[in-house]
Amino acid sequence: MAHDNHHTNDPLRDLAHSTLTFYERFGLQPDVADMIQNFREEVGELVEAAQDGTDKQHIAEEAGDVFVTAIGVCWASGVDIEQLVAQVYRVIAKNDAKNHETHVYTDGKIRRRK
User: Fold this and answer.
1) What is the pLDDT of residues 39-54, one digit of tens each?
2) Which domain holds residue 15?
3) Is 75 exposed, middle or buried (0-12, 13-18, 19+ CB in 10 A)?
4) CA distances from 45 to 42, 49, 58 (A)
5) Nearby residues of 75 by Cβ (< 8 Å), 6 or more positions away
């Protein structure tokens, strides 16, 4: 499926379509192992940049690469872009509904109160 650079004023959807257009431009085939390898490399680079902590722009760049490669993993796994976008918006809504009465920060993670 060909994707274009048409912008929708939905940054998440635009990023997803731009990512697929990028992969298509280079003739990449959806290979899960390759996409996972790329994703792991980018996550490692983000972790290193964040642990160093001295270059905020570098951290942001690495985070952007993680977003793109995560989309690539989904694409290679056969996840439809609209399905991915819808799921991200469900996560946003779920997170927006969490508060101090329902959740607590413990052990490095926000967890449901018992």
Assistant:
1) 999 999 999 999 999 9
2) 11-112
3) buried
4) 5, 6, 10
5) 19, 20, 23, 30, 35, 81
Low-confidence residues of the chain, pLDDT below 70? 1-6
pLDDT at 101: 94
Residue 72 C-beta-side C-alpha neighbours within 13 Å: 24
Q: How many helices (H) and strands (E) does the chain have?
A: 4, 2
Total domain count, the chain: 1
- pTM of the predicted model, to two decimals? 0.87
Q: Does 106 reside within a domain?
A: yes
Give the separation between CA 81 and CA 78, rounded to whole angstroms: 9
Domain CATH for 26: 1.10.287.1080
CA angle 21, 63, 107 (to 5 degrees): 135
Q: What tokens does 32 get?
A: 């899960």
Q: What is the widest separation between alpha-carbon atoms in the chain?
A: 50
Flag whether 4 is in a domain: no
Is residue 6 domain-resident?
A: no
DSSP 34: H
